[in-house]
Design a protein that fits this description.
- The complex is a heterodimer.
- By secondary structure, chain A is α/β, with parallel strands linked by helices.
- Chain A is 37% helix and 21% strand.
- Chain A is built from six helices and six strands, in the order βαβββαββαααα.
- Chain A has helices spanning 16-29, 76-82, 115-121, 128-139, 146-156, 163-177, and strands at residues 3-11, 33-38, 48-56, 70-73, 91-95, 109-113.
- Chain A has a six-stranded mixed sheet with strand order 2-3-1-4-5-6, sandwiched between helices.
- In chain A, strand 4 (70-73), helix 2 (76-82) and strand 5 form a beta-alpha-beta unit.
- Chain A is globular.
- The relative contact order of chain A is 0.16.
- Chain B folds into two domains: 5-201 and 209-235, Thiamin diphosphate (ThDP)-binding fold, Pyr/PP domains (Rossmann fold, 3-Layer(aba) Sandwich); 240-349, 3-Layer(aba) Sandwich (Rossmann fold), CATH 3.40.50.
- In chain B, the strands form three sheets. In chain B, strands 3-2-4-5-7-6-12 form a seven-stranded mixed sheet, sandwiched between helices. In chain B, strands 9-11-10-13-14 form a five-stranded mixed sheet, sandwiched between helices. Chain B has a two-stranded antiparallel ribbon with strand order 1-8.
- In chain B, strand 13, helix 12 (311-319) and strand 14 (325-329) form a beta-alpha-beta unit.
- In chain B, helix 1 (9-19) packs across helix 2 (34-43) and helix 1 runs parallel beside helix 7.
- The chains are: A alpha/beta, B alpha/beta.
- Chain A binds chain B through residues 21, 24-25, 28, 33-38, 40-41, 60-64, 66, 155, and chain B through 4, 6, 31-32, 115-116, 171-172, 175-179, 256, 259-260, 262-263, 266, 335, 337-338.
Chain lengths: 180, 350
C-alpha cells in the first residue's frame, strides 16, 4: 500500500493551489486515487494559503492532510507552522530565497531550492511554484517521463493559454536540473 | 466510461444538475458554496437555461417555487445561514407539494458563524427545516462523485414524490477536488399533470397553493403527505456498510466525518479491534433498520459528527437502548482528526 500526503503552503498568489492541482492531475493520469483540498478561508487573501493533495493506490479516506509526508514550504510562516507536522522520514522542500532559516528537524529530509530567485532570473517571476514542483518530480523519479508531465500540464492550463505549456515545462526543468 | 476529470464538489453538483435536465438556477453567493452559482452563471446562458442571482436567498427560493409550479426542474444552493433564510420557501414548497433540489454546503454556526466545514444543520435538514408538518429527502454525499450522483438522484426523487430533496454537504465536500465521472444519463422523466403550464383550453385550471383555511382539508393534505413519506421510508433508504461483518463496535458517520472515520477504522483494524462503519447516505429517511439490526450484535456505537451531537439522537432511537451510543465530535468549523476517532474506538474497545 502506498499513499503520499502532500501539503503545499505559502502566501496567497504564489500558485499554491495551482501546483497542487497539477500534482493531483498527474496522479490521476498515472492511475492513482487522488484528492485535492484547498484552504478557503480569509487566509487565501494574503496570508498563508495551503492545499492538501493525496496520491494513493488505495481509495482516499479523509482528504485532510494533517501529517504530510511531503511539505512544500514557500514562505517562513508556512515552515514555522507545518514543520512539526511532517511525518518522521518525510521530506520538506524549502524555497530558500524566501526562507532564510534551515529546517530544525533532523528526522526528515530537507531540500533547499532558491525557487523564487531562479524564477525571477528566468524572467518568469510568478512560477517559483513550478520550479519547486520540478524538483519534487525529479526527487520522486517522475521526471523520466516528460510526456506524462506535459499531459498533466495540459489538464491544468487551458487551451487559451497554450503558450504557457512550454513555459511551465521549462521552469520545471530548471527545478529538475538544480543541484544544491 | 467517460474520462475522469478533477472537479470541485460544488462544480460537480452544478454540472450534474445540468445533466439531470435542470435549466433553472436561482441563488445568492455565500462561502463555501459559491462555486455552484459561479458554474451555473457560466454554463446556463450557453445551453438556453436561466441563471439568476437573486436579491436575496428568500427571493431565490420563491423563484424556485414559481418555476417548480410550471413543472420544470429547478434548484437553488446556499450555505447554512442562507438556508435558514430559505426556510419559509421550503415550507411553502412542502405545503404545495412542489419538487425542488436545494443544496446546503454547510458551514459552522449558529448565527453568521464561520465559513469552515460543519454538519450542524442536521436537525434543521432532517426534522423539516421550517414550520409545519413536513420532511425533505436529505442526501449526504461523501465524495465528489457522490456530489454528482446524488444531485441526479435528488432531482429524480423530488419529482417522484413531489417534494424537496436536499443535498446536505459541507465545506470540505464543496471545496475539495476528486476525480469524477459524469457518465450518467439525464434523470428519469416524471409526468407532471399538476403543473401550471397553461391549460391550452384542453383541461381545467391547475392550482398550486399551500393555503388551506379549513382545518379538515389541511389535515387531509398532511395525512396524504405523510402516507407518501411512509412509502419513501420503505423504498428509498440508502446507506453504506464498511467492515461491519464481524464488527463489535459500530461507528455511524456521514459525509466528511465518514471519511475521517474510515481512516481511523483502518488503523483500529490493524490493531485487531473489530470495528465497522454504517454511513447513512439518506439522512431522511434515516437507515434506522440497518442500525437496529446492527444493535443486535454490536456492543457499542460511536456517532462521529461535526456538530455538538445531532445525528446521535437518531442513532439512539434506532439502537433503542440495546447498546451504549457515545459521541465523538468537533464543532464550529473544526474537523475531528483520525487520531481522535481512533482514540474513541480504542476507548470503546476496552
Amino acid at each position: 500500500m502506498s499513499t503520499t500526503q502532500y501539503l503545499f503552503a505559502g502566501f496567497g498568489g504564489q500558485g499554491i493551489l495551482f501546483s497542487g492541482k497539477f500534482l493531483a492531475y498527474k496522479g490521476l493520469m498515472d492511475g492513482a486515487n487522488v484528492s485535492w483540498l484547498p484552504s478557503y478561508g480569509p487566509e487565501m487573501r494574503g496570508g498563508t494559503a495551503s492545499c492538501s493533495v493525496i496520491v494513493s493506490d488505495t481509495p482516499v479516506g479523509s482528504p485532510i492532510v494533517s501529517r504530510p509526508d511531503v511539505l512544500i514550504a514557500m514562505n517562513l510562516p508556512s515552515l514555522d507552522k507545518y514543520e512539526d507536522a511532517v511525518v518522521s522520514g518525510g521530506t520538506i522542500y524549502v524555497d530558500s530565497t524566501l526562507i532564510e532559516r534551515k529546517v530544525k528537524r533532523t528526522d526528515v529530509k530537507a531540500i533547499y531550492i532558491p525557487a523564487t530567485k531562479l524564477a525571477s532570473d528566468n524572467g518568469t517571476p510568478t512560477l517559483a511554484n513550478m520550479i519547486i514542483m520540478g524538483k519534487v518530480l525529479s526527487e520522486e523519479g517522475q521526471f523520466e517521463n516528460e510526456e506524462g508531465i506535459m499531459a498533466a500540464l495540459k489538464k491544468v492550463i487551458s487551451a487559451k493559454r497554450a503558450d504557457m505549456l512550454d513555459v511551465n515545462m521549462n521552469v520545471m526543468r530548471l527545478g529538475h536540473e538544480y543541484a544544491e | 466510461m467517460a474520462e475522469k476529470v478533477l472537479m470541485k464538489g460544488n462544480e460537480a453538483i452544478a454540472e450534474a444538475a445540468i445533466l439531470a435536465g435542470c435549466r433553472h438556477y436561482f441563488g445568492y453567493p455565500i462561502t463555501p458554496q459559491t462555486e455552484v452559482a459561479a458554474y451555473m452563471a457560466k454554463r446556463m446562458p450557453k445551453i438556453g437555461g436561466t441563471f439568476l442571482q437573486a436579491e436575496s436567498e428568500i427571493a431565490a427560493i420563491n423563484m424556485v417555487y414559481g418555476v417548480s409550479a410550471t413543472g420544470k426542474r429547478v434548484m437553488t444552493s446556499s450555505s447554512s445561514p442562507g438556508i435558514s433564510l430559505k426556510g419559509e420557501g421550503l415550507s411553502y414548497l412542502a405545503g404545495a407539494d412542489l419538487p425542488a433540489l436545494v443544496v446546503n454546503v454547510q458551514r459552522g454556526g449558529p448565527g453568521l458563524g464561520g465559513i469552515q466545514p460543519s454538519q450542524s444543520d442536521y436537525f434543521q435538514a432532517t426534522k423539516g427545516g421550517a414550520h409545519g408538518d413536513f420532511h425533505m429527502i436529505v442526501l449526504a454525499p461523501a465524495s465528489v462523485q457522490e456530489m454528482a450522483e446524488l444531485t441526479v438522484k435528488g432531482f429524480d426523487l423530488a419529482d417522484k414524490y413531489r417534494m424537496t430533496a436536499m443535498i446536505l454537504a459541507d465545506g470540505t465536500m464543496g471545496q475539495m477536488m476528486e476525480p469524477v465521472s459524469l457518465d450518467f444519463a439525464e434523470g428519469e422523466k416524471v409526468e407532471k399533470p399538476w403543473a401550471t403550464n397553461g391549460t391550452k383550453m384542453a383541461r381545467p385550471h391547475n392550482v398550486v397553493n399551500s393555503l388551506f383555511l379549513k382545518p379538515e382539508q389541511l389535515e387531509k393534505t398532511n395525512f396524504e403527505r405523510f402516507e407518501r413519506y411512509e412509502t419513501i421510508k420503505q423504498n428509498e433508504v440508502m446507506y453504506e456498510e464498511y467492515m461491519m461483518e464481524d464488527a463489535e463496535i459500530c461507528v455511524v458517520a456521514f459525509g466528511i466525518a465518514s471519511r475521517v472515520s474510515k481512516n481511523a477504522i483502518n488503523e483500529a483494524r490493524a490493531k485487531g479491534i473489530k470495528v465497522g462503519l454504517i454511513r447513512p447516505i439518506t439522512l431522511w429517511p434515516f437507515p434506522e433498520k440497518a442500525i437496529a439490526a446492527a444493535a443486535e450484535k454490536v456492543k457499542k456505537f460511536i456517532s462521529v459528527e461535526l456538530s455538538m451531537g445531532q445525528m446521535i439522537e437518531d442513532v439512539r432511537l434506532a439502537v433503542n437502548g440495546k447498546a451504549p451510543v457515545t459521541l465523538c465530535n468537533r464543532t464550529g468549523g473544526m474537523i475531528p482528526e483520525p487520531e481522535q476517532v481512533l482514540a474513541a474506538i480504542t476507548e470503546a474497545a476496552k
